[in-house]
Amino acid sequence: MNNKIYIEKVGSAPPRDAKAYLAFFDLDETLLVGKSMLDFFSFFCDERGQGSTYRQFVSRIKGYLKAGYSREVLNKHYYENFQGILIDEISHISELWFQKKLTEPCFFSEKVLLQLKLRQQEGAVCIIVSGSFRESVRPIAKYLGIDMFITNTLQVNEGYCTGSLGSVQVIGEGKGQAVKKAADETRLSLRSAYAYGDHVSDMPMLELVGNPIVVGKNPELRKIAKSKGWYMLS
């Protein structure tokens, strides 16, 4: 893994006026109701006729959780599953997965979606910051009219995934780095920025902005939010 952070812009963003500000959104269990990474991998394995691979992975993850592994470690193990697979195949299946999710209820969090629409109406530069990967996030970002997204990047060699990351891991401290990178590129202040997150691993992002907003019912994060006087969207 290298130390680069990749920002992908979605379409051509409209010109911003002097009131523009940044709005950062975590993805899983924030903009989305559930965990897209596991949902995608289940769909991916089914598409390839490898349902047992998904079940074995879930079993391993349960063991890692019981052993107290961090989200960063779990995240890395997730990407090992894509070793030797064509990135074009992953991209294609990502599109199929997203089209399927659009036909299902409760994919997006309605409360956070309303917040996104409000920020967009106010002219904010809206950015997804996620430990998921570009190919699976791209169709979601396009659909929601997100300006740009910062995610993990799969390392690719001659078109095939190596099973490692090719960028900074955008989880935990990596989210803080991503937020700083976006502020540098857009030349917009973090003091006026908003950020939405649901887990303590989002703290490095939430602490950097002037308007942190906690989503969901994670007791540890809500305790921190209460002590800091942060707004909680429940």
Features of the shown structure:
234 residues, alpha/beta, Rossmann fold, seven-stranded mixed sheet, two-stranded antiparallel sheet, 10 helices, globular
Characterization of this structure:
This protein is α/β, with parallel strands linked by helices and 234 residues long. The chain has ten helices and nine strands. It has helices at residues 27-31, 36-47, 51-66, 71-80, 87-101, 110-121, 134-144, 173-186, 203-206, 219-228; strands at 7-9, 22-25, 125-133, 148-152, 154-157, 160-165, 194-197, 211-215, 231-233. The strands form two sheets. Strands 1-4-3-2-7-8-9 form a seven-stranded mixed beta sheet, with helices on both faces. The protein is globular and about 50 Å long. It starts with 6 loop residues before the first strand and ends with a strand. The model has no long low-confidence stretch (mean pLDDT 93).
Would you kindly provide a brief summary of this structure?
This protein is α/β, with parallel strands linked by helices and 234 residues long. It has helices at residues 27-31, 36-47, 51-66, 71-80, 87-101, 110-121, 134-144, 173-186, 203-206, 219-228, and strands at residues 7-9, 22-25, 125-133, 148-152, 154-157, 160-165, 194-197, 211-215, 231-233.
